[in-house]
Amino acid sequence: MPAWYVWAMTADGLPRSQAEPRLRWSAADLLTALRLPLAILFPLVRDMWVRIGIVVIASATDLLDGPIARRFGSSRLGVVLDPVADKLFMVSAFGVVAFSGRLAWYEIVGVLLRDIVATVAFVITAVSRRATAIPARLGGKAVTVGQLLTLLAFLLESRLLHELAWATAAVGLYAIWDYSRVAGREKRPVGGADPS
């Protein structure tokens, strides 16, 4: 029996994520944390293929950290670290796009609009000591895919760059509307604390 499997299960055969309180640090957090140095590295490298590799690695960590957290357990840190790492990576990457001049400032704002609104909303709830998180929704995931496709179009110098930026902005507007629509009934306290 693999060591990781033994670690993931308790003596009564339940996954640790179901039998124990949240961890301080989890395997998913390690994957998520990888996006922080990638966010720093992206603007420092000049080679297109290295940048594409960075985007692929960042995307893979974003794709895998959720399933790993659900399977092996999550931490209070991960609830905050994941969106912070996502947003820092996107800001870093689209900062490079902004300095290139290939997209106008308002197109970049459009691509990042969902993240901007989510950050402002989180700060407002945190300042009011009611920080909450809303489970990921399809619209939010579609925005992330659009952002990554826009970024790849930039790196590959595709003629579809502007179209992808505008499409991502449109999906972002939908995601903002969708999140605001369900915010009251699906929000949960950050870190899993009891809201009462």
Written account of the structure:
This protein has 196 residues and is mostly helical. It has a single domain, classed as Up-down Bundle (Four Helix Bundle (Hemerythrin (Met), subunit A)). The chain has nine helices and two strands; from the N terminus they run H-H-H-H-H-H-H-E-H-H-E. Strands 1-2 form a two-stranded antiparallel ribbon. The longest helix has 26 residues, at 161-186. The termini are far apart. The model is unreliable at 1-14, 16-21 and 192-196 (pLDDT under 50).
Provide a quick synopsis of the model:
With 196 residues, the chain is mainly α. Helix content is 73%, strand content 2%. Helix 8 packs antiparallel against helix 9.
CATH topology: Four Helix Bundle (Hemerythrin (Met), subunit A)
- The low-confidence runs, each spanning 5 or more residues with pLDDT under 50, are 1-14, 16-21, 192-196
Distance between the termini: 42 Å
Name the strands of the widest sheet in spatial order.
1-2
The CATH superfamily name is CDP-alcohol phosphotransferase transmembrane (TM) domain
What's the order of the H and E elements? Answer: HHHHHHHEHHE
The main sheet comes to:
2 strands, antiparallel
User: Per the principal axes of the C-alpha atoms, what is the gross shape?
Assistant: globular
Mean pLDDT: 81
User: How much of the residues is beta strand, in percent?
Assistant: under 5%
CATH top-level class: Mainly Alpha
Any chance you could write out the topology, listing elements then pairs?
Blueprint: H1 3-8, H2 16-19, H3 27-33, H4 35-44, H5 48-72, H6 76-100, H7 105-127, E1 132-133, H8 138-155, H9 161-186, E2 188-189
Antiparallel strand pairs: 1-2
